[in-house]
Amino acid sequence: MKFDVRTAPQWRARTSVSRVMYTVVLALLPAIVVHAWFYGVGLLANIVVAVAAGLVTEAIALRLRGRSVDVLPGDGSAVVAAVLFAFALPPLCPWWVTAIGMVFAIGFAKHLYGGLGHNLFNPAMAGYALVLVSFPALMTAWPAPEIGDLDYQRPGVAATLRYTLTGRTGDAPPGLAGLDAIARPTVLASTRDGLAARRTMDELRASPLYGDFGGSGWEWVGNFVAIGGLVLLVTGVIRWHTPAAFLGGLLGVAGVFWLLDPNVHPSPGYHLFTGGAMLGAFFIVTDPVSAPVTARGRLVFGAGAGILTYVIRTWGTWPDGVAFAVLAMNAAVPLIDRYTRPVVYGRSTS
Amino acid sequence: MSRLPDLRLQPPRPAWGVRPPRRKSLSARDPIRVLEPPRRVTLPLAVDGGVALQPCVSIGQAVLRGEPVAGLGAPGTTRVHASIAGTVVAVGLAAVAGASRPVPCVTIEGDGDDTPWPGYRPVPDALRLAPDDLRLQVAAAGIVGLGGALFPTAQKLATGPALHTLVLNGAECEPYITCDDALLRERPERVVAGAQLLLAASGIPRAVIAIKTDMPAARIALYDALQAAADPRLSLAVVTGKYPAGGERQLVELVLGVEVPAGGLPRDVGVVCQNVATAAAVADFFASGQPLISRIVTITGGGITAPCNVEARLGTPAATLIAAAGGYAGTPRRLIMGGPMMGIALPDDDLPVTAGTNCLLAATDAELAGDQDDEQPCIRCGDCIEACPARLLPQELLVACRQDDLAALDRLGAAECIECGACDYVCPSHIALTRRFRAAKRQLGDAARAAAAARLARERHEARTARLAREAGRREQELAHQLPASGPDSGP
Predict the structure, then answer these.
(1) What's the pLDDT tens digit per position in B312-344?
(2) I want to staple B117 with a disulfide (CB 3.0 to 4.6 A). Which of B67, B318, B331, B491 is the partner?
(3) What are the C-alpha distances in Å from A121 to residues A55, A130, A332, B81?
(4) Chain A partners of B338 at a C-beta cutoff of 8 Å?
(5) What's the DSSP call for residue B368?
(6) Model pLDDT for residues A252-274, shown as the tens digit of each residue
(7) Are the CB atoms for B94 and B107 separated by under 8 Å?
(8) Chain-centre distance of CA A24, in angstroms?
(9) What order do you get walking across the sheet with B103-110 strand by strand?
């Protein structure tokens, strides 16, 4: 009897790039639902726009590079980048902002560097940084969460979609004036402005914008992002090193300053459950392509991103620092990889 | 040697390694079945790529079971023995399982009566023999490493003053394979007796038998056998169930906490490794006078009707063994000699099994799911790094392979790859890493040999140039002595 032959190993674990990528998307679903619960359907509209823009860019880039154009389901990497990018955007965001960010993320940050596996920078964060720098007012104007004691009427589904797809808010004049009517500063922004105005944390925390730890509403999104992160840990899609180092770095620095003076430094819990910290810890710094490859390298990388996040939040120009912290650490990855190489078996003795 | 490294009888679980499905219970249900001698055997006289032993039989010659058919050279060389009684029908090149090209073989047709050759006798008091005598007898018995390397056991045992530990490898870490487990469960006393004989033959002061945590029955059986032997030199280590814990270098690291130096052998750190089946074969020879003519083979997989362990004569065609296990169930896709991680896919089942055949795995489509080579780009997930027992960076080696960068391959330690396949197994991008590393190792070896040859040629050339210069200088001096008159004041 004859058989087919191949070289060892004769089998593989049941895993694939697309499986890894789509697991990441699934793990973020609970947080997406909670986000929509507090901030309306804006996020869903942003995800649709981002995924569409991302896939079109991916298809064009693959075609230009002479690769086979298979984007859906494909390897899933463009979908993951799009969903994470959309998650970082404010829920009320005109479609062209989203599209510009995704074209940059996929076309420039990913394919100009050589495509999947070769990008130095995290595509979602590169896209986010671009739109944050280009449209700072739009990017920092969030609607307040749907919580009882906020004097705020959330735009309905129709108004949200109209704004997302046209950039106009109903009868109000187009542009920012309309958005200003419904948007509130984010907790991160109001904290830094309040502290700059010499108010203490206790005074600031009296505002209904604040919840138990971080921003009210937002801390719940953070919880569900963390739950998604735990799912990724349990399913083996990510390892514990980067999230633990990121959260440890952020917590450590925040804890030191908070202990020094809790009146002018927000608590570590606030830093953990506000802004992009949880998303950064479990979904951004864990992107394998733009992170170091060894466990030791990932500890350094994660801790660096966590510390930089605190530094940018506290002393930088931008209210949140996750995106810039991650991008800065991305640039350090080749160096980290170089200095965290393991010693090959049998070479430590010789 | 000032102090021996401590034995770690329950070593900590290593960071490296993978946990593929074990699928060992398939073949571990029934006791080992001793098969009848087959009608025909083909006995290789060389391992793949090695030097062949000189045959000492000719076509038409009648041989008895256990009679030497090759290797009757200088004392201490290994031998090959007729595994059945019958007539030699062919001496020449033939294909055998696991060899990449035909190797010299002796083929014997059985006559059915299986009469033993009287040339070897049991040696009941073998433990009292001198180490040199014991090693000569082990070599004469044709005993080679049954873990798969087929290295002559006697050569590995050559005494050395710094040797301190004999590690008997029973940590069968490949999925599916249970031949060593079956041996340890059913014949632990032979392994223990073999350990004592190997210690006597090598002068090593202690031996440790290593098994895995997922072999509870073997552990109990060995424990009882060790109690019965009451030999303080012997101990039992239980290592992780992760693959590849049974790799020689990995086992040394696990049990002794020391690393075998790069490019070196376990004996460089005072250790000799032998497979438990090898130890049992040594014990069998001294107890019964039967040289190495059989081994335990696991016949398993979804494509086998009744998976089991059999004791089969060396040289039996794979098809005969599979028939003994009830034949094929359905149409298996692949026939693998060895396990799914490091095994060799056989093109057909006529090939004879060798002393290195621990398993025949007839695998179905369902079992091999995920063996396709649909390579995606590396996403730097690092799973290969985590899996690698040699602490290599497979994803960087891959880049060096693609760029044919021999210097980078050398710097990154490609030569230390043990080809265990763990990186391939976990790769989400389905990149054929091991295949590339195997080729890279070969390239590095070729390059090293070429460099050595070039160095030798250069040294020869430089030596010759220096010698010619010396001789020319000497001649000039002699010339100068012969013409003492030549001076400034005696010109013409």
Answers:
(1) 999 999 999 999 999 999 889 999 999 999 999
(2) B67
(3) 19, 12, 10, 64
(4) 8
(5) T
(6) 999 999 999 988 898 898 898 88
(7) yes
(8) 12
(9) B40-44, B103-110, B86-94, B62-63
